Amino acid sequence: MKVLVSGASIAGPALAMWLVRNGVDVTVVEKAPDIRPGGQAVDFKGPTHRTVLERMGVWGDLVAAQTARSDVRLIDARERVKAVMPGEFLGGDLEIRRGDLARILHQHAAPHADFVFGDEIVGLTETADGVTVAFAHRPTERFDLVVGADGIHSAVRALAFGPEEAHLEQLGHYYAVADAEVPSNGEVRDLADGRAIQYGYNEPGRYAVLGDTKAPLFFVFRADQAAYDRRDPDSQKEFLAQHMAGMGWRVPEMVRAAVDAPEFYLDAIARTRMTSFTRGRVALLGDAGYANTLGGFGTGLAVVGAYVLAGELEAARGDHAAAFAAYDRRMGPLSKVARRANAGPFLAPPSALRIRMRDLIFASGPLFRGMMRLTEAFATDPGLPDYRFRVSA
């Protein structure tokens, strides 16, 4: 079987690792010229995520590359602490920079799969026995299956399922991440035990986070429309500056640093509106199928989804229709949180009262413990199968 995977960030390499154990010929195509470094921290939580990562054989590498546990002190403009978001809430059981995670997964998958950087899928033609794929640069090629693991703005989803606006729901908030250093102004950002401290400042509808030199600047804000060009970083930086203008504390300094940063990313907080992630010989994986930006579950869903998709293909002995149906059945309930949660109003509440109510969750032991139990329950699948692959890790 020949399988083409679009996307070499997290879901794509994870799927490739599993498919090659089934004896599948895997090609991974990625639009970017290389694995993207840096980026925001992502996390894994609960026994299901850890079980899959251990079966992949990458848990130890991820532990070695994990970030320091970071608490976010929620402050006012005079830097008085109103509440603390504990690192256990923000970082789950294991937190790691997105770029480090992608690098580790690529290192494990690259010896066994063909990775093609600097190219992308521009056309799909499905027949009874395969999919003919047109690329931007390389020659047209036929594959048995195509998997879109190419993120929330998936080109594969648009080609196989229809326009983005039919499947992606914008939630009215936006976020930006910038790898930029803002000098200390007397605040403590590192503790003796290796934990880090970040400072989160809110005004109604806006949120800015300043951390240590290894942590990117982070912003969340409310906006009525996406008045920027998604392919133009300067347009994105101007959009951020406009919506952060007039904020107090050190936000003006942070915005200036973000605008000057070479590594900058901005996008809408959005979620997919899909209950089926397969069509014909095409499947969607990770954010392409079950995105929930900043919801805290996307990375874990991506690695679990890769395990389930590869496992069902092996269990069905190459019958992709049966395997895809089983994949849809299992990932539907697991991805339900991606179709419900909205991190925007939680991180950037719309009023001073809502900000105080949000802070109360972290100031109250029972409320916080209840929220932690709920998030772990969302991330856990007690019935996850132990798929049998032909080649062990």
TrEMBL record:
Residues 2-321 form the FAD-binding domain. Coiled coil: none annotated. One of its GO terms (molecular function) is FAD binding. InterPro entries: FAD-bd, FAD/NAD-bd_sf, FAD_aromatic-hydroxylase. SUPFAM superfamilies: FAD/NAD(P)-binding domain (SSF51905). PANTHER family: MONOOXYGENASE (PTHR46865:SF2), OXIDOREDUCTASE-RELATED (PTHR46865). This is FAD-dependent oxidoreductase. It comes from Nocardioides turkmenicus. The lineage of its organism: Bacteria, Bacillati, Actinomycetota, Actinomycetes, Propionibacteriales.
